[in-house]
Batch of 4 targets.
Target 1
Amino acid sequence: MPAIFTPSDKEGLRRRMLDAGWSCLLSRGYRAMRIEDIAQEAGIAASTFYGFFSSKTAFVTEMVAENRRELVGALERELARAEHGGERAVLERWMREVWHGERCIFRCLSRQDFQRIRAGLPDDVVMGPEMSGGALARLLERSVGEARDADLELAESLQRVCAVTLLARDAFTAEELERAVDALIDMTLDALFGTRHGRGEE
């Protein structure tokens, strides 16, 4: 492994580490996941890891931020291709993929671990499903532009409830959990687009 990395080398290593991080997080959980595990999974030395990230918390924060950037980018591309009036269907598919996906951080962390990580984050880093501010808010405002009754505040609150529900997943059976997530997604979409565009009417 060279001591000096080109920008391309650095980006490749960063991506390998982030992918390795998700693999370790999913198989071991946050508390049991060690820097050595991530480095071994990525095929690098632990010292190389610390050349990119100062701590496990900083690393997990970047995992979440990178995943969020990718998801928002995917939504932006899908909305740009959507026909007028098809925004709800696009957003519904996207939300189901996000909330049911294995890289949904709320499925990977306990409530205590999530609070511990969030407490150490800079003010400008968001781990939660907040819709206000930033690229996601702009996309949502554009996509619900004609829905005069769109309630972004309620939609954001419902998404927070979804996050809290997943963090408390041990209180539910697997079936109850997934049904609750789907119901919260449906309510979020109704808050954004109104029930006149309800399920089954697209």
Note: Residues 34 and 149 are 47 Å apart (CA to CA).
Target 2
Amino acid sequence: MKITRFLLFLIPCIVSTPMAVAQNCSNPIGIWKTSSGARLDIREINPDTGQIVVSFKSPENLFQDGPHMGTGYLGNASLPATSGSELPASTLSFTVKWPDQSISSWNGYCELKKEVPTITSLWLWVRPDVNKFIEHFNTGHTIFTPYRENRGKEPSPSPGK
């Protein structure tokens, strides 16, 4: 009898517990990473305007503090982005202000690449205090993929050790 009561109590708790959903191009909320170690955390999306709130942590060799808050917009995230599809990719743009008063902005799109949601972006970094006009502007591209932590997993031993 006690077990039955316990199970009747436990089942609604299990059923009503929200499951963690990995971010994707249609729902990009979550942490994205780059191969250089930068992390983009898309924290909020306003469903009416598409405005997003983000935090961005640069690779350790740039700004060691942070993460830094930013804002931007999501374009057509409600459309499913599939590899090889004629549907448009999900578009996004966001901007971050750095401690040295420089500003970076990323503009890109999200689509599935080899079954992995991938944000491909062009970035512009504008710096205020430089000696030459051309040094004010730096550009490049960044690719973000979903960040998945290896919690509790130890690296497998090297062969022969």
Note: The first strand starts at residue 30 and ends at 33.
Target 3
Amino acid sequence: MTPLSARGLRFWWRSFMENCQSKASPDIRQRLQGLPFHTLRHTALTHLARKMDIEDLAIFAGHDSINTTSQYYHAEASRLKKMAADHHI
């Protein structure tokens, strides 16, 4: 197997979404129409943020700045609040 180029990945995404739309109910079909590939990337990086350090996630995502990567850590705020409360901080 050879890795997909960015263009190839986007082509795969469009084909995949068209296939999903053809099998979905009308209300779901409407929601899937025009769903950008970046949505999948954002979802994946948000889930990985629960398991990875910010430095590792930045490298994985190909970000030049940790500030760019920090947007994926919004889901961690409640976990950090709980951890601070558990340690009376």
Note: The mean pLDDT is 85.
Target 4
Amino acid sequence: MKKQKKQFLGMLLVLAVLAAAYGGIHVYNQKQEKKEASEEEAEKLTVVDFKTDDVTAFSYVLGGQVYAYTKTDGEWTWDGDISLTLDTSQIDAMLDAVTGLTAESEITDGEDLVQYGLENPSGIITFTTADGTMTLQLGDKNAVTGQYYLKVAESDKIYLVSRDLSGTFSKTPQELLNEEETEETESVDATEGVDATEGVETAVGVDVTESAASEDSTEE
């Protein structure tokens, strides 16, 4: 009986040791994962270090036209028509894609801009903050890594980034209107400039004036 009791206590001791070892390994693995994640983040290069709220104005080129926006008292307006009410949440979402932007790698021998699609950038985005102005030039997509070439105009640095900023900054001011403004615009477009007589002539193919004259001569 004593022997069995000793064996039982021995087994409990072994289980306790194994449980402690497992717990220690689990904690160690968690620490290692956090350490590796921190090191990986540290290896990334900071391209944009300002925050969304820091941006007071920005512009981008779309279809050969420059669209510029300015923030006043927390509200965004399009410089082309400041009377329009823009959807601030949409604009903030666009800026969120840029603020805090990091790069996977930096190209140090990027003197030949042609091979990166940066001699004639596919997109140009400019941001203004209290600290000054920053312009990003967008280049080609790397066929191997799936990343995008990007150059900061104010420096010679060329980066490889994961985000497709040309797709983010691809909306016209009309697409950035808030819902109420859009409904009002569509309502005005549907009612303005409509000629009822022209509508009848176009639909039927008959000159209303000539038809009326014909009826008068028949009655006579």
Note: The radius of gyration is 33 Å.
